[in-house]
UniProtKB/TrEMBL annotation:
SMART domains: PAC. Residues 163-274 form the STAS domain. It comes from Chondromyces apiculatus DSM 436. Residues 14-73 form the PAS domain. Keywords: Phosphoprotein. This is RsbR, positive regulator of sigma-B. InterPro entries: Bact_StressResp_Reg, PAC, PAS, PAS-assoc_C, PAS-like_dom_sf, PAS_fold_3, STAS_dom, STAS_dom_sf.
């Protein structure tokens, strides 16, 4: 008899320890009766975790979730619950939804559920679920996404700067070596950098070197003409350097008019030409 009482006391002590452990967990753990559509166990009321008083929770009754849930998530949640009868043992059912706090703000909750027990004929009887607040995780994720966008934007800006460097050669002379393909977006960037550089440095001559540029054709020639005309409006002369023989032949065959642009075979020759014109 004494041994039986000792065993019962140990069992009560163990059960109290388990209940205390469950109450201290930050997650809401519950057992949901599929047929009665209500919880038969919960370590803590989700409403209390959200900041509602016991009276407010009692008034909402079994409709607590649907009362507090964001309208856009109701259909999703109902579809989620409809999967209970078909769940296999060990299959995890996850869903994220929003619940309203007393102040009107919404917190993201993630529910993870699986079969806890079945009836004698194998039908799902109860569901074991764990719900935890995802709000801070979502906020941190959103902040990381914004930071990633800012980093990408900064990297893109840096690449654009690298792709259109403006180098001062001498007093009143600047050079811009162009490398890679020149599309319309980059053409606009070239124009902006060059015109701002001419204005800022008071340049009278600008060297555009296309030695490293790809696919310099009539379209690119038209872009260079546009740059030349814009520079001339600011009182600067453009000298184009680095046109390769194949490119020169292509430009002649396509009828591109480069008459408005002074050309030199290499950037070095262009610099020599510019220095002769530049005052000592």
């Amino acid at each position: 008899m004494a041994q039986l009482e000792a065993n019962e006391e140990k069992l009560r002590h163990d059960l109290e320890a388990v209940h205390r452990l469950l109450r201290l967990l930050p997650q809401s753990i519950y057992v949901f009766d599929v047929h009665q559509r209500s919880n038969i166990y919960a370590n803590g009321d989700l409403g209390l975790l959200l900041g509602y008083s016991p009276d407010e929770i009692r008034q909402m009754g079994s409709g607590l979730l649907t009362t507090l849930m964001h309208p856009d998530d109701l259909t999703l949640f109902e579809g989620h619950a409809s999967q209970y009868p078909t769940l296999a043992d060990g299959q995890l059912l996850c869903t994220d939804y929003r619940l309203r706090r007393p102040g009107g703000t919404y917190h993201w909750i993630r529910g993870q559920e699986q079969v806890f027990s079945r009836t004698g004929d194998g039908a799902v009887a109860t569901i074991l679920g764990i719900a935890h607040d995802l709000t801070e995780e979502r906020r941190a994720e959103a902040e990381r996404a914004v930071l990633r966008e800012q980093v990408i934007a900064a990297q893109s800006a840096t690449l654009r700067e690298i792709g259109t460097p403006l180098i001062p050669i001498a007093d009143g002379v600047v050079a811009m070596p162009l490398v890679g393909a020149i599309d319309e977006e980059r053409a606009d960037r070239i124009l902006d950098v060059l015109l701002n550089g001419i204005t800022h440095r008071g340049a009278r001559l600008a060297l555009l070197d296309v030695t490293g540029a790809k696919d310099v054709d009539a379209r690119v020639a038209a872009i260079l003409l546009r740059v030349t005309r814009a520079a001339s409006l600011l009182g600067a002369q453009v000298v184009l350097t680095g046109i390769q023989p194949v490119t020169a032949r292509l430009l002649v065959e396509t009828g591109a008019d480069l008459g408005q642009i002074t050309t030199r075979a290499t950037l070095q020759e262009g610099i020599t030409f510019a220095l002769k014109l530049s005052p000592r």
